[in-house]
Amino acid sequence: MQPCPRCGGSAETDPEHARVVCCLSCWHTWVLPGERPCAGTRNLLAPGLRMLEEYRDLNR
After folding, report:
1. So which domain of life are we looking at (predicted)?
2. Which of 23, 49, 55, 59 could in theory staple to 11 by disulfide, Cβ–Cβ 3.0 to 4.6 A?
3. Cα(22)–Cα(3) distance, integer angstroms
4. Which H or E run includes 2?
């Protein structure tokens, strides 16, 4: 059980949807943040660097 950010009541996870929490008092629902596979920024930078490399080849 978690506290609701809107009313402070008790909230439980939704059994039908992963990472969704619903308040039992005011019916406010929200999604919990997902876990990132890696804490570093390398996975985020690699696709951007690939796009820059492809764009550079097109401009030549």
Report:
1. Bacteria
2. 23
3. 10
4. strand 2-3
pLDDT, tens digit, 9 for 90 and up, residues 13-54? 988 888 899 998 998 888 887 766 666 555 666 677 777 766
pTM of the model: 0.51
Q: Is 38 left (phi over 0), alpha (psi -120 to 50) or beta?
A: beta
CA distance 21 to 12: 6
Q: CA 2, CA 22: separation in Å to the nearest integer?
A: 9
Positive or negative: CA dihedral 32, 35, 39, 42: negative
- Residue 16 is given by DSSP the state S
* Residue showing tokens 């390398």: 42
